[in-house]
Specification:
heterodimer, A: five-stranded antiparallel β-sheet, 1 helix, 5 strands, globular, B: 12% helix
Amino acid sequence: MDTTGIRSAEIGSAFVESIEMGRPTLAAAANQYLRLAVRSKPGMSGSGLFVHDETSVASTRLIGIASGNSNDRAHYVAPTVLYEFMSSVVPR
Amino acid sequence: MKTFVASITMIATVCMVAVLIFDVRPSEWTRADVESVFRLPNKPSNETPAPAVSDSDEQFGDLQRTSKEPIRWRSPAQPEHNIEWTSPSPLRTQRPSRNLPLDDSASTESPGHSIQWTLERRIAAASVRLESADGIVGSGVIVTVRPHSFEILTADHLLSPTASGRLSGWNVTHLVLNQDQSEPNGTNNSTVPGMKWTTSRSLAVVRRDTAADLSLLRVSSSAAADRPIAISISGLEARSNPSIESNPTGSLVGQQV
């Protein structure tokens, strides 16, 4: 999801190359990242990566939050990390 | 491994932009969109992703691999995740409120007129752009909508002055809700009036997790603040030149965007 445009958001398809462990800081614990085959551009931090189940419109889910680039590839915070984060906020 | 690769391939295949078209009434689509789009991700199947790291610790590019840690989905004992992020109440039990953010009842369509919305629009409408006084600084996604507030999930480093030098504190000055998408018939909905919030108290941090690079922000409105298309939070100072080089500690390993 690219919301960096002035007027409108743009949605593009992306290929998830792999799931990797990484960390945003040297001191931070490692987290899972989805590595995409594309590079994100400035302003996309925090944007969403979605997966859509064609069998159900309502099943579209957010599976990643753009964090940064590494090796010229966009890295998105993985869904498990999102789940843990949101679970700590939203009562189950 | 094959299963995992196949799974990833499938995710990539369906990832984003299927053009499923469905009918949603304008007065209802917003809440339904958010609730349907932003669910907790399903816990993956029992498959264990194959390690994607080398045998030795390796600093690759900007993110650091930690190969000694097995790559696996966390909390394997947890039940299947299918919990919506949206609060179960009162949104699911009340009629759509005129004060709901993202309520697009002021759109150009006649009330009650059923129009077709694309999946793209659903996602776009719930995505936000975080904009500083100096320009675009980040993005976010609305994960919770309440009658007078909504919450945005975004990257934590956007809020951390020690991360990218991009922002300092609560330097979000504009949240642009992307409701000006073109209609399926080609017309543009940009005439929907915007709403500006001018108090910094409207923005609060629900939770930050620097290690996970995630932050949850809550944007509140007054009772009269319906349809906040554009939100301005004043009194905040943005820092310019977001670059990795500005990191004073040198500890940031990601080239954050």
